[in-house]
Amino acid sequence: MALTKVTQKYIYDKQNPSRCGNQKYLILNHFPGDLYGIGALFQHIADYLSVAIQTNSILLYAEDQPPGQNFVSSPDEGGDKSCGRSLDCIFYPISKCKHEKQKGIKEGTQSIFATPEGSEIDLDVPAYLQKHGSAIPPVLEAALREVQPDITHEMLKYWWRAQASAYLMRLNAKTSSRMRELRLGDGVKQLGMQWGTDGEPKDVEMPFPMPEGTISMHVRHGDKGYVRKSCFQVSILTYSRSEMRLVPFNNYVVEAEKFGSVNPLGYWKRGFLSTENPNVIEQMQSMSRIAGFETSGSNSRWTWYWSDIPRMMSTIERIDLAVANMFPGLNTGPETQLAQFGDRTELTIKWMLQLVMAM
Predict the structure, then answer these.
(1) Does one domain contain both 86 and 227?
(2) Which of 37, 47, 79, 291 has its CA at a distance of 20 to 30 angstroms from the CA of residue 165?
(3) What range does the domain containing 195 cover?
(4) What is the pLDDT of residues 175-218, one digit of tens each?
């Protein structure tokens, strides 16, 4: 915990010097296609923040087409004119400094390195990291190894991503206020369902805070599991296995019940489900228990909580439910949902609320 506090102050001080003049800047343009999910987006930005620290420069976002612009409603569509389509509409600015080179970055340039002398260099950050650097700034790696000398390379990588995200994703006051309204505002009801001893479900309100011992489950987008290979063929799409193995929701519940059965004093069958897949919500609502009474831990039947956010079926599910059954968990990616539901900033804030609730 102490190292985390020191690290956050270190990043803040690097990004916010007492004077912005005579500084070097690493300016990041939008990513190609800009269709990353928000987790992948900040994973990539973390690399650029690392290189900025390693080169003693300040990371800034381009202004014309900033990274993550697809998560923010444009001013032309009712978005906040003061922040444009920048992530600053949702999070605190990553630096108090500004630079004239933030405007006018040509299409196809991922990032530029601007020096106090006025020179401008296109910087290939992935190539730089591969040749010169590390995913984690060396000064922080050295500090971490002092605490844990045998730490693995993978742990170093994930530790840095967590530290970078903690800094980059500091919710600004407007976002925090809106999230509070969505969670606790007048007329707002988050969702819950409890299976009673009579074997029947009933609606319940989600308490604040959620009870101690609630188990958090996240079922991510199914688009990681399959990619579309061809266009329409007699109303059927051809999909192939892709980035990762999809896990059926039933498996989540089995593991949660196993965990609860060996920790009966600390955990109940009480779960918060975060997901953008409406089919998973339907599965959850039909599930009272999997294990028998004798191995069920503290209580026999589940109480489920989930957030009230818009969710949509995938293209393949709408076209042919028989085909959809061959690909459980397949649903739309974040860009499709952002485009479908209109207010990109509002939906992003709802996703962030779901994340905070899950944690």
Answers:
(1) no
(2) 79
(3) 176-358
(4) 999 999 999 988 777 889 999 888 899 999 999 988 888 999 99
